[in-house]
Description:
Elements: E1 3-9, E2 14-20, E3 59-62, E4 67-70, E5 73-74, H1 75-81, H2 84-93, H3 99-110, H4 117-124, H5 132-146, H6 156-182, H7 195-204, H8 215-228, H9 235-244, H10 250-261, H11 269-280, H12 286-294, H13 313-329, H14 334-347, H15 349-353, H16 361-370, H17 378-399
The chain binds acetyl coenzyme *A.
Acetyl coenzyme *A binds next to loops.
Amino acid sequence: MTDTLSIRDNRTGKEYKLPITDGTIRAADLQQIAVDGEPGLATYDPGFVNTASCRSSITFIDGDAGILEYRGYPIEQLAEHSSFLEVSYLLLYGELPTQEQLDNWVHEITYHTFLHENLKQFIQGFRYDAHPMGMLMASVSALSTFYPDAREVKDPENRTMQITRLIAKMPTLGAFAFRHVQGRPYVYPDNRLSYTANFLAMLFKMSEPTYEADERLVQALEILFILHADHEQNCSTNAVRSVGSAEADPYSAVAAGIGALFGPLHGGANEAVLRMLKRIGRTDHVADFIEGVKDGQERLMGFGHRVYKNYDPRAKIIKKACDDVFEVTGVNPLLKVAQELEKIALQDEYFVKRKLYPNVDFYSGLIYEALQFPPEMFTVLFAIGRTPGWLAQWSELVEDKEQKIARPKQIYTGIRTREFVPIDQR
Ligand code: ACO
């Protein structure tokens, strides 16, 4: 027997029974609830706070319990035992790879890391002070012009090709954007290195024949990439799916996701956290800052989450990774400010009542800074980590027979049908 929801429309006295599946009703089922001559009932949900846009088998989150799983595997286990490319494979194909599958996957990614030289010139065209996220967004979008076949989104083999290319080229694009701002020559990929070690080499190599990053730092960045790899229907993934629903190519869809991620309420928060910590500067300024937040003058960046009403499980893992990184680089003095902020906020009625806890961005900026990244690069790192998630969600969308072009309704609040007034009479 299917569960149902009974609705009585008090305007007409009519009763309706709607099926409940997976804890949801279909919004389209509400359309039958109508008063003569008027459009059927719809839902109004700005910010999609209570609307499911798809069925997905990629990422599970229980925000109240602080649980995050990719394809059923807890994030804590993946962060401890897996590599970023292995997790990418898992997100994209649903299962952990065998050794042979992993070797092939790593090989494929490694051999697609180079960019067309024209793309390098394209990046060189940006101003010296261009934000690397703007450069990344534009250059990912430009990739669609280099691979016009990417528009054949219905062809699974073609999709695999574009997915491989994009995951492979993201670190190269991110590193070139970084070197551009620094005014340093771009460093080409080194196929002998792992995904993350190669990224660090493209960022920091100068005249040495091979750049060898400290293995502990490589590992910390791998963990950060894993933690950011997917997060179900967040703002940027929704942007990717929305653009993808028009059957646009994946480069255009991911460029839209990068645009959304750039926003300070989303991926841009890690940059905002570090600026906030620098502004606070010292632990004895924390209490005043918290008062400012409670008065509505400030926002405690890196705190709060639409889904997590408990400690973000990723923040816990990052806090531990901080220790490993600081062992190599020395402790970031802003760590003390962050810890004091967390301590005070977690005891304060304002934050407790609203269930505001540290999110993934609260501590990640401290690690990034210790790794010598300027704040403008933080969101680029997030974007590189999130790319396999965006692409897994895009693939799922393309294969989902229930999906349609994303096209929400509106409640029109403007004036209706007016006579045009010539300019000399206004
Ligand atoms: N500092 C102070 N107050 C906050 C904060 C915060 N960081 N976050 C939420 N609140 C307050 C709101 O003012 C609101 O209070 P009210 O009920 O008195 O009006 C209440 O908590 C609920 O907040 P909403 O804004 O309604 O929550 P929403 O789910 O829409 O927003 C968001 C979530 C955008 C993440 C928000 O918590 C925020 O702005 N946080 C700071 C930015 C940040 O860290 N973003 C990163 C999120 S993680 C990610 O994208 C990777």
